[in-house]
Amino acid sequence: MIFDSPADLAARPADTIPHLATHGLSCVIGGRTILSGVDLEVRRGEVLGLIGANGTGKSTLLRVLAGVRRPAAGSVRLAGESLTAMRPRLRARHLAFVAQEETGPTDLLVGEMVGLGRVPHARAWGGFEERSRGAIRAALDQVDLGYAINQPLDRLSGGERRRALIARGLAQEAPLLLLDEPTNHLDIGHQLALMRRIRALSRTVVVALHDLDLAATFCDRVAVLHDGALLACGEPDEVLTPSILHDAFGVLATRVTHPITGRTHLLFSRDEREPHP
């Protein structure tokens, strides 16, 4: 697929402009090239899964998409506008980002920490309006954490704290949500419940995942990173194929059908032709 340049993108009809797009994106950290020549378009309202082996640049790409890190080359455009040209407060109204190993300030109550997601909407020198209070409560309910609103953050388990951070991102009410490994530290029940809620959001979501079954089940499309480049992007059945997964992860994949749900799942084995780590 050939992606439009920023100039061509700006000339497209408004209803065809992707919610988020990169063109020729590269990122260098400490003299090492992490991302190179990434062209990616995220459609408005879709859930796009981002997968790849450790160290392939998933977290770096999300940080660049969030405006946390500037690219060395190329561009990121949000609804056709340059992301780097946006003021931070305006950007925070348009996108929310939850990093992978973020812990949050432990001296706050859970409701206070989730309330940080409402800062882009707060009035100058004012407290939270009732709308913000409702957004905080609703976000906590979405991650099954409403009972903890008045508890200190440092009393939560690792999984609860992870859900609280996701609630902060939900409370931000941005139309674009970027999530880096949101299911980390969650048991299988909460993983499935969280992904169902993400799937049901009326927002555009880009989510980095290690679990390929979660990506296949809950994502509209999947983008595969390999060695800092975009190896493939498409619907799960088009992308999660034995050949692409072998190139990306060095494993042998077999597709099987679940006897109850009828859904396709993946079984993996190591390719013994590959050197062991």
UniProtKB/TrEMBL annotation:
Q: Which species is listed as the source?
A: Nocardioides vastitatis
Name any one GO molecular function. Answer: ATP binding
Q: Does the keyword Cytoplasm apply?
A: no
Q: Where are the transmembrane segments?
A: none
Q: Which UniProt keywords apply?
A: ATP-binding, Nucleotide-binding
User: What CDD domains does the annotation carry?
Assistant: ABC_Iron-Siderophores_B12_Hemin
Ranges of residues in domain ABC transporter: 20-252
Task: Answer yes or no on keyword Signal.
Answer: no
Database matches in SUPFAM superfamilies: P-loop containing nucleoside triphosphate hydrolases (SSF52540)
Protein name, per record: ABC transporter ATP-binding protein
